[in-house]
Amino acid sequence: MSQQFIHEITCPQCSHKQDTILWNSINVTVDPILEEKFFNQEINYFNCEKCKYSAFINMDLLYHNMEKSFMVQYLHDARKEYLDQFYSIQKRAEESFSSVINVPNMHKGYNRRITDDMSRFMETIRTFNEGLNDIIMHIFKDRVKSNFLDFTGTDPNLYQLYFIEKTNENIKISVSDEQSKEALYEVPISYYIAVGDAINNQFNVDLEFNHWFFVNDYNVVSFFNGL
Ligand SMILES: [Zn+2]
Fold it and tell me: Distance between CA atoms of 69 and 47, rounded to whole angstroms?
């Protein structure tokens, strides 16, 4: 279910007061228009009607796609205390919901992710929307980083890789450094498939990760290194 509320915001530039709709949760299956708004950066943005100042309102947001069976939670603050609170609220909600409708595995087949990084949030949504596996995507990007990119003289850890889109033949990823200088790379989709096959052959794990999982490249790569 999509959840919104109205909040009066004072423009930091011109002090104009304006009611703004803010969203805690968007269900893009029930409200497809919200999907469009989300990708147009119209969800949780303040746009001053007087001076045209625009800013992102940094608050928690759940993106839920029932048709493609995934949820991604953006947390504006993911310090341990806040994250623990999130997990316990989710656990209670899921327990009470499954006891009411008596479905013990109600989220089986559902991918659920959490992140505190807005770029990662968008990336995860794009990945699932394209029907790709985000766990494979993280390992794929790690391999791309070590095999395809030349970091001579710089530290590869300073660079962030994000999935952008899938074409018929390629996977497009952006590579950005700390100064947010960005470059686009295209890697053949066959390489993504090969990485997926290699993980499946090497590790006996379910790559669906049907539970709440705090997602970033480091968490995924270290998970597989630890197996
Ligand atoms: Zn203004």
Answer: 32
